[in-house]
Amino acid sequence: MNKPTVRHAAMATFAVFAINGFVFASWAARIPTVTRVLDLTAGEMGLLLLTIAAGSVIALPLAGTVVARLGTASTVRVGGFTSSFGGLIVATALALGSVSLTAVGLFFFGVGIGLWDVSQNVEGADVERRLGRTVMPQFHAGFSGGAFVGALVGAGLSALHVSMSAHLFAIVVLVVLAMLAIPRYFLPSPVAAQAVPADPPSGASREILGRSAWKESRTLLVGLVVLGAALTEGAANDWIAKATVDGLGATESGGAIMFAVFVASMTAFRFFGGRFIDAYGRVPVLYGSLGAALVGLTLFVVAPNVWLAGLGAVLWGAGAAMGFPMGMSAAADDPARAAARVSVVSTIGYVAFLAGPPLLGFLGDHVTIRWALLAIGVAIIASILTAPAAKPLPAEAHEAYEDAGN
């Protein structure tokens, strides 16, 4: 495969990650607005957010099989269109003030995001492998950069008192246009070879092979590494704005700006982080980033003013930057099993990313959402303890893949 094709695929993958981040942050930055419009407590909003988690948890374990059958480009489109459909339902529900209809829309949004996430990570891993250098953090920097822009847009629209419904309708149009245009530049269908070995055991199917990844100890340990990192990121996405508003007396637009600070820090470290991984290796970088996340989270919670909390948000974002992309690269080390393993690790990560923050909302009803964030530290420590599982697999797996003609 010639280099221009790989470069085009890299740019397309980066763009798809960026749009994914923009869509998610456009929702997350305005959670305080949605909470107010629907007149919900933190615990009730947490319960509503669980519907996103439910949709994704259903979609993610199936995503490896879907990618194997449809390819990454088609699966990204299916995910984008499904999340757009969910966005239309949510926009309509907010205009009507309906909590139940909002829950239905968020469920479809979660299904779409789950399919979208696995397919873009499988594509990113294949591009990274063909380029021969670490670029997965840069793809996730695209997600974070899109989220930063989405957070700023959310803050601006909140300050201008633009309705969330109008905001979501505009996003749906953007996503549909992007899904029609961008995935055509993805690499040509490498996923069938990734999902199923060239000579599978007699009677084996893609579904069986996908489920067998759940029995691999390394894959599950990598999933635990990603779990802590994903909870660290997801909790900030869902609650840092509200914690700033409720705990520090900031305005809704001020809360959205704090979220933007977190995302900007995460984006910067993801963009440059590949160099550190190539220089020092995955495991040392994981130790450093998870440690920074723990320090930053603690500072944000105990800070007496917005400025120190902002410094905590910078450290928190820097620490949250690398865990998820390194976990995806580790899951995809063996190209022949990439789709199945990425699906497993993504499922574990997204359970934490989407289901963990709503549970913090319930805790927040008792101790305030700002102090509830300290519970994330337990998951971060667990990720630090399991970080060695992300050590790259021996080169033989890569060589076997190349020898097979992929």
Describe this structure in words.
The protein has helices at about 5-30, 30-35, 40-70, 70-95, 100-130, 135-160, 165-180, 190-195, 205-210, 215-250, 250-280, 280-300, 305-320, 325-330, 340-365, 370, 375-385, 395-405. The protein has about 400 residues and is mainly α. The chain has a single domain (about 5-180, about 215-405), classed as Growth Hormone, Chain: A. It is globular and about 50 Å long. The N and C termini lie close together (about 10 Å). The model is unreliable at about 190-210 and about 395-405 (pLDDT under 50). It comes from Arthrobacter livingstonensis. GO terms for molecular function: transmembrane transporter activity. It is found in: Cell membrane. Keywords: Membrane, Transmembrane, Transmembrane helix. Its main location: membrane.
Give the overall form: globular
State the share of residues found in helices, binned by percent. Answer: over 70%
Number of strands: 0
Task: Say which CATH homologous superfamily is assigned.
Answer: MFS general substrate transporter like domains
Span from first to last CA?
9 Å
Content-based structural category = mainly alpha
Largest sheet, strands/sense/barrel: none
- Domain count, please report it: 1
CATH fold-level topology = Growth Hormone, Chain: A
Radius of gyration: 20 Å
> What is the residue-averaged pLDDT?
82
Regarding quaternary structure, how should these chains be classified? single chain
Secondary structure tally, helices: 18
Residues in β-strands, percent: under 5%
